[in-house]
Design goal:
The protein is of the alpha/beta class. It contains 29 helices and 24 strands. The chain has an eight-stranded parallel beta sheet. The protein has a six-stranded parallel beta sheet with strand order 15-20-21-22-23-24. Helix 25 links the parallel strand 21 and strand 22. The longest helix is centred in the middle third of the chain and has 22 residues. The protein starts with a strand and ends with a helix. Bound molecules: glutamine and zinc ion.
Length: about 775
């Protein structure tokens, strides 16, 4: 007998991104909706069969989505704002795509619903919008259809839904504000879930999984009552038949475990990869209700390394001290890992055997479940366990003693830039000779079709390195000339040589590996292919120095060097599990520090170190913000730049303006200048800057680069006026809110002309 196995969710984009390709073809008018349906159906069948063949007991259905499963949940609850309904589409997918991507055509003109990061992953969900006129009711049959579709294939599945609590906490009203949970709303939402349960009872489903990841966050007043009130209304619909698995992930639920346990769910899913100590302590303290099975989430859904069976069995054994009813599960949906290691032929088998993508994780789940119910004797004799132990006993990769030595030799002085920032600011003002309200950009300029085509040719070996470099130089020259013409103060080279702000650096660092096909869904049809941190990281050779030096040689203006910071590189890679994130970030910081010092030596006076992902990876629980993250992430950034001369100006950039709650930590990064997104009249962060006496000079983005719209000079002038109400003019920079690489030249240059003109006009009035 083996323990019950359960998969929380499976990647849906397809082994070769078939879903992405067919949907994008449909958007372009090159495929029909029927073809999209057919591909989707094939993929679902393939994925269910793979899981059935691996012997998974509880196989998910309704984890499929054309865009996003929270959007699907909204649609199931009939939470479809009127402006999308008015488009009057007959096909439900067209309404779905209008909600997720916007629509401009003969039926109307609507923008998309906002998109946000799904907890601490790089997956984005669509934010549901509930209007006063929204009538919450069961809409559509997607979960039932997919359950029956699997059943027809002879596969019994466990339908998966995002739960009502998480839905209500993530949804917003039509003013983008958090909802107030009045009785009518709560009852209406609960009623739909009860109806869904009743329907699945009718169809004969054995288990349903309801995901409530929002339970792993800190609770606001009223949250626990809301949760209880929802489930006391929903659970009676089980009618003694269907079993409900309340699933949580991305952290622990210690603060509500007692409540959850008392509600009498048939299963409680706990993440034993993130927050395992707190979860185990809660289970030991409060016990497990007699009819409840604990689903031990031991197979990591967020990283790609093989599971250490000894660790997983230790966790399962600990739970078994409390209850005999333990199932073995993935810690979260496998949506966040790539499909299979099968196609990674470029990686040495000795390397590849250390990785488990979604398909390989199915095998791990089964082996752990078998071992979970085996006694010591049987475990000792087990071949799978022995083979697994061998992987973890041996040295995977030789440590680089030089890296360890460097880290061991670090002292507080290496994390402290001298002199103090106020002093530096004076020296830099003299050295750089910039006007007040200096203008600049975030780094990249449009990556036109031509640029991408040349890079593709170079990659395929169709043109030589010399020819490619000449081409890039030409792009840089033209970009510099144009920036000079419109009168920007601090120039950039344009980043034409890089396709990506992480992979480009990884390729020039020791310790990184790259995959061919390890794509992970980021949002909608967009996928990312993060590099893997395999060993100790150091810089193999200068990365950007030649390009920046070339660019500086072509102008008398100040040329800004452009780097990606250590926290962002790690957060957008697959991190190692044998050493901490802190250690890996430190190694990366030293590698980028080498690059900073080389740029300085090459005559670059302003260096920007982007930390786009810093805010994004803030832990979910506030109590962990410092101890588990900021206490090392912020010093790592300081380590990168502490070695430069007082006159060298260090910039950083963040894509988010939502950092009013960590404003002092941002200041403690000790950069000289920060640029960030603040284009949508977001004044909260400006207030925070004001109140915190923020020392870093700052460029709150004066226009939104995510839209092709050209802002007028007038509009930017007004924006600058608003900024000057809150900030000291000596500390203000004028820039767009992010890099321009996804824009076209047609809108970029007029926008920047307006930006420069606006800055000049405001300067003249000072
Ligand atoms: N320097 C990068 C660029 O301009 C920054 C990108 C980002 O913040 N994501 O593209
Ligand atoms: Zn950005």
């Amino acid at each position: 007998m083996a323990a019950l196995t359960s998969v929380s969710g499976f990647p849906r984009i397809g082994q070769n991104r078939e879903l992405k390709k067919i949907i994008e073809a449909y958007w372009k008018g090159n495929a029909t909706l029927d073809e999209v349906h057919a591909t989707a159906k094939e993929l679902r069948a393939k994925h269910w069969k793979l899981q059935a063949a691996a012997g998974v007991d509880l196989i998910p259905s309704n984890d499929f989505s054309y865009f996003d499963q929270l959007l699907d949940t909204a649609i199931l609850l009939n939470v479809i704002p009127e402006r999308y309904q008015r488009l009057g589409f007959t096909e439900p997918e067209e309404t779905l795509f209008a909600m997720s991507r916007g629509y401009q055509g003969d039926k109307g003109d609507v923008t998309a619903l906002p998109m946000k990061k799904w907890f601490t992953t790089n997956y984005h969900y669509i934010v549901p919008e509930i209007e006063p006129s929204t009538e919450i009711k069961l809409n559509g049959t997607k979960p039932f259809d997919e359950y029956l579709e699997a059943k027809e294939l002879g596969i019994e599945t466990k339908p998966v839904l995002i739960g009502p609590y998480t839905f209500l906490k993530l949804a917003r009203d039509d003013d983008a504000q958090e909802l107030t949970f009045d009785k009518g709303l709560v009852n209406a939402v609960a009623a739909v879930y009860a109806q869904v349960l009743a329907k699945f009872n009718e169809l004969g489903a054995k288990w349903i999984q309801i995901d409530e990841p929002f339970l792993v966050l800190d609770k606001q007043p009223g949250d626990v009552e809301l949760f209880k009130s929802l489930y006391t209304k929903i659970l009676p619909a089980r009618d003694g038949k269907i079993k409900v698995l309340l699933n949580t992930y991305f952290g622990h639920i210690a603060d509500v475990y007692e409540t959850v346990n008392l509600l009498g769910f048939d299963g409680i899913g706990l993440d034993l990869n993130e927050g395992e100590d707190e979860n185990l302590a809660a289970v030991s303290k409060h016990g497990v209700a007699g009819n409840t099975t604990i689903f031990a989430g031991v197979v990591n859904g967020r990283n790609i390394w093989r599971n250490d069976y000894a660790v997983s069995l230790g966790l399962v054994d600990a739970l078994k001290q409390v209850t005999p009813n333990v199932a073995v599960s993935t810690a979260s949906s496998l949506l966040h890992v790539p499909f299979s290691t099968e196609g990674e032929t470029a990686l040495d088998p000795a390397v590849l055997k250390h990785f488990a993508f979604a398909v390989e994780k199915l095998g791990e789940l089964k082996e752990i479940a078998t071992l979970a119910d085996a006694d010591d004797e049987a475990r000792k004799a087990d071949k799978a366990l022995a083979a697994n132990q061998e992987l973890f006993d041996g040295t995977r990769v030789a440590a680089d003693p030089k890296v360890a030595e460097r880290i061991a030799a670090l002292t507080d002085a290496d994390y402290t830039r001298q002199p103090a920032r106020a002093e530096r600011q004076k020296l830099q003002r003299e050295a750089l000779g910039l006007p007040l309200l200096p203008t600049t950009t975030i780094g990249s300029f449009p990556q036109t079709r031509e640029v991408r085509a040349e890079r593709a040719k170079f990659r395929k070996g169709e043109i030589t390195k010399e020819a490619y470099d000449e081409f890039i130089k030409g792009q840089i020259d033209a970009c510099i000339k144009h920036q000079e013409e419109i009168g920007l103060d601090v120039l950039v080279h344009g980043e034409f040589e890089r396709n990506d702000m992480v992979e480009y650096f990884g390729q020039n660092l020791n310790g990184f590996l790259f995959t061919k096909n390890a794509w992970v869904q980021s949002y909608g049809t967009r996928c990312v292919k993060p590099p893997i941190v395999w060993g100790d990281v150091s810089r193999a050779k200068p990365i950007t120095v030649a390009w920046s030096a070339y660019a500086q040689s072509r102008t008398n203006h100040v040329m800004k060097g452009m780097l990606t910071g250590p926290v962002t590189i790690l957060n957008w890679s697959w991190p190692r599990e044998d050493i901490t994130h802190e250690q890996q970030t430190q190694q990366l910081a030293l590698a980028i520090r080498d690059e900073v010092l080389d740029l300085e030596a090459a005559g670059i006076k302003v260096i920007q170190i982007d930390e786009a992902a810093l805010r994004e990876k803030l832990p979910l629980r506030k109590t962990d913000w410092h101890s588990k993250y900021l206490d090392w992430a912020v010093p790592a950034f300081r380590l990168v730049h502490s070695g430069v001369k007082p006159t060298t100006q260090i910039h950083t950039h963040m894509c988010y303006s939502e950092f009013n709650d960590i404003i002092r930590d941002i200041d403690a990064m000790d950069a000289d200048v920060i640029s960030f997104e603040a284009s949508r009249g977001d004044l909260v962060v400006l207030d925070a800057i004001h109140e915190a006496n923020f020392e870093t000079e700052a460029g709150p983005g004066v226009y939104d680069i995510h839209s092709p719209r050209i802002p007028s000079e007038q509009e930017i002038e007004e924006r600058i006026g608003e900024i000057l109400k809150k900030m000291d003019v000596e500390k203000v920079w004028i820039n767009p809110d992010c890099g321009l690489k996804t824009r076209g030249n047609a809108e970029t240059w007029p926008s920047l002309e307006h930006l420069v003109a606006a800055a000049k006009a405001v300067r003249a009035q000072l």
